[in-house]
Automatic annotation (TrEMBL):
<dbReference type="InterPro" id="IPR037136">
    <property type="entry name" value="RNA3'_phos_cyclase_dom_sf"/>
</dbReference>
<feature type="domain" description="RNA 3'-terminal phosphate cyclase">
    <location>
        <begin position="2"/>
        <end position="198"/>
    </location>
</feature>
<dbReference type="InterPro" id="IPR013792">
    <property type="entry name" value="RNA3'P_cycl/enolpyr_Trfase_a/b"/>
</dbReference>
<dbReference type="InterPro" id="IPR000228">
    <property type="entry name" value="RNA3'_term_phos_cyc"/>
</dbReference>
<dbReference type="Pfam" id="PF01137">
    <property type="entry name" value="RTC"/>
</dbReference>
<dbReference type="GO" id="GO:0005730">
    <property type="term" value="C:nucleolus"/>
</dbReference>
<dbReference type="InterPro" id="IPR016443">
    <property type="entry name" value="RNA3'_term_phos_cyc_type_2"/>
</dbReference>
<protein>
    <submittedName>
        <fullName>RCL1 protein</fullName>
    </submittedName>
</protein>
<dbReference type="InterPro" id="IPR020719">
    <property type="entry name" value="RNA3'_term_phos_cycl-like_CS"/>
</dbReference>
<dbReference type="GO" id="GO:0004521">
    <property type="term" value="F:RNA endonuclease activity"/>
</dbReference>
<dbReference type="GO" id="GO:0000479">
    <property type="term" value="P:endonucleolytic cleavage of tricistronic rRNA transcript (SSU-rRNA, 5.8S rRNA, LSU-rRNA)"/>
</dbReference>
<dbReference type="InterPro" id="IPR023797">
    <property type="entry name" value="RNA3'_phos_cyclase_dom"/>
</dbReference>
Amino acid sequence: DFEASFIRLIDKVTNGSRIEINQTGTTLYYQPGLLYGGSLEHDCSPSRSIGYYLESLLCLAPFMKHPLKIVLRGVTNDQVDPSVDVLKATALPLLKKFGIDGESLEIKINRRGMPPKGGGEIVFACPVRKILQPIQFTDPGKIKRIRGTAYSVRVSPQMANRMVESARSILNKFLPDIYIYTDHMKGVNSGKSPGFGMCLTAETINGTILSAELASNPQGQGAAVLPEELGQNCAKLLLEEVYR
């Protein structure tokens, strides 16, 4: 179902695409149309996160006929795909290096949705750039700071603080410039399922961004995760990225 949802999304952003799927759903015939863009809305399948759909839109959006502004609804953070937070922190700065920038380039999280039921909502907007700026980007540089977000939805707001403390206990040994925001969504903005998680990014002096993230197990699946463990494991994942 998530692949069918993805094909419908591609059909929405293009004009004149021909898509045929056989009855058993094993063969796909796809004839691409023009990248059209414009203002759109799409309900993503909750079995994969919005990041799965957003990754391809990030590649296509700069080359549309009209600037793309799309509202995507579904799961914002899960354990499978890159979360919306990570794409916002890593993909947007990368697009800016290629000369795709301006106020109209943004990913905005209106509501968070955790699996299995989702209920999140984001807005992705991107200006049109027909030509990319070539870049030479070979020296990653030394890490200068660490930023992050600890989010909690439909659970105690204290969960986010506990994750931040445990992550800092590890990262403080590495460098002092660390700031992890806590993001506690309330009411309508917190989607339909409880959960919490963390997204960390390390930035170098040359503007390279390394990221790591973890989310709690979906409601009713697997063992309960302690926020302290999740914070520590996320910090270790980030340090492993830096080491690599």
